[in-house]
Amino acid sequence: MGTPVDFGYKSYNAYGAYLRKKYQGKRVFKVIVDAGFTCPNRDGNKGYGGCSYCNVDSFTPELSRKLPTIREQIEQGMERAIKNYAAERFIIYFQPNTNTYAPTHYLKMLYDEALSIQPENIVGLSIGTRPDCIDAEKIALLESYTHRFDVDLELGMESIYDETLLKINRSCTHQELEQTLSLLQSTKLDICIHSIFGFPWETKEMMLRYADEINRFPQIKFVKLHHLHIVKGSIMGAKYHREPFELFTLEKYTNFLAEFIPRLRPDLVIQRLFGLADYDLLIAPNWGLKKSEIQSYIDKTLEQQGIVQGSEFVMSPTISV
Ligand code: SF4
């Protein structure tokens, strides 16, 4: 299990504090790359139509969706981050769709190209994918970069319940995630798990159990927590229009996090506490705040409530979902 990270001023291991410590105070930013991948849950290989909450356009800001080449996306992404945030170092983030869904030699070509652009300023590579699109050969390819960069492999878990995965047309079971995690037991990659809270049929108790499930895999280093939001162009969006259902308010979601975070293993680093699609794509819930305002509301509330990550952590070797 990893070493606990300095919490800085927050109630939890925040990714920002982790990056500052790891890169000696340098300002590190992710640059999103859309390499034109598709997804096996869209092209028929595993399923059609995609996960019911997914509109792939909601992954990326408007600007990066229209940029044609990897080089242009990275150069312009770096330029924006330098101009707007005084960024000094970069993590190249292959985000939209399934970024290991191609033959390994083709992946190598794409990753090599991306990492050749201002390599002196790149500290990391981050790859978003599905658990069923990773195998030993792809793991070896990603590990081959770890002598020069930190490599973060982000796996979509979404829910720990197969019943939910079926309902959202995920075309991937929880067991497939477990199998992939067992391939990654002693990996040099930093494993990140992405999860979604707020499917209307899951109770709070069911969602709190995600923490127990994540905790039992020591190879997981990062988590991205996300409330369910409904975006235009998704199947769930069409259903929501016909029959709206209850979604988290900011207050309720924060209260949920206040119960969830204490159950999380103390060494896990939280990359994200919520998601926010572009407002032109977002149907609901619209909390009417900027990203920084949401972050600040959550952080302040957690701090006021005296929340401490890991304070209720109990290691359970196996849980049955
Ligand atoms: S969420 Fe990911 S796996 Fe699901 S359809 Fe969208 S890109 Fe594919």
Features:
321 residues; alpha/beta; TIM Barrel; two-stranded antiparallel ribbon; 11 helices; 17% strand; globular; disordered N terminus; binds iron/sulfur cluster
Give a quick precis of the structure:
With 321 residues, the chain is an alpha/beta fold. 34% of the residues lie in helices and 17% in strands. Strand 5, helix 8 (204-215) and strand 6 (220-227) form a beta-alpha-beta unit.
The first-to-last residue Cα distance is: 23 Å
- Whole-number count of domains: 1
- Element order: H for helix, E for strand: HEHHEHEHEHHEHEEHHEEH
Oligomer: single chain
The CATH class label is Alpha Beta
Adjacency order of strands in the biggest sheet? 1-2-3-4-5-6-8
Mean pLDDT: 93
Structural class: alpha/beta
Strand content: 15-25%
Rg over CA atoms? 19 Å
Give me the count of strands: 9
Give the overall form.
globular
CATH architecture: Alpha-Beta Barrel
Q: How many helical elements?
A: 11
Note down, in words, how this protein is organized:
With 321 residues, this protein is of the alpha/beta class. The protein has a single domain (15-304), classed as TIM Barrel (Alpha-Beta Barrel). Helix content is 34%, strand content 17%. It has helices at 15-22, 62-65, 70-85, 104-115, 136-143, 162-167, 174-183, 204-215, 235-242, 250-260, 291-304, and strands at 28-33, 89-94, 122-129, 150-158, 190-197, 220-227, 230-231, 269-272, 282-284. The strands form 2 sheets. A 7-stranded parallel beta sheet has the order 1-2-3-4-5-6-8, sandwiched between helices. Strands 7-9 form a two-stranded antiparallel ribbon. Helix 10 crosses helix 11 (291-304). The structure holds iron/sulfur cluster. Iron/sulfur cluster binds next to loops.
